[in-house]
Amino acid sequence: MSDSTRKYLETSQIIPSKGMSYTMYEIEGQDTILRMLTFIPDNDEIHIYPKPPVKKLYKPELCKKVEENEFLGLWTMGEERKVGK
């Protein structure tokens, strides 16, 4: 099911009183964002964005690459938590 034109990238930043926040992007082509999620491990928070507010990733070359299965694993957890609410 993996599409060779897709890649998975991550940015991180510190959120005061919450810890590190990691934002992961599912990218198609150079910089088109298909889906994105935010993960804050210290608070065990996952927020998924099936229709991301931003469509183009600014400076993808500054992002860290992540594995597809890492993104998809967190995405699945985020979906399961949404259903539970």
What's the story with the biggest beta sheet?
Answer: 5 strands, antiparallel
Distance between the termini: 29 Å
Strand order of the largest sheet: 4-3-2-1-5
Low-pLDDT sequence parts: none
Strand segment tally: 5
Based on helices, strands and strand pairing, what is the structural class? Answer: alpha+beta
* SS field, number of helical segments: 1
Mean pLDDT: 92
Q: How many discrete domains?
A: 1
Order of helices and strands: EEEEEH
Overall 3D form: globular
Q: Roughly what fraction of the amino acids lie in strands?
A: 35-45%
Write down the oligomeric state.
single chain
- In percent, how helical is the residue content? 10-25%
Radius of gyration: 13 Å
Descriptive key words:
single chain; 85 residues; alpha+beta; 42% strand; globular
Description:
- By secondary structure, the chain is an alpha+beta fold.
- It contains one helix and five strands.
Short précis:
The protein is built from 1 helix and 5 strands. The protein has 85 residues and is an alpha+beta fold.
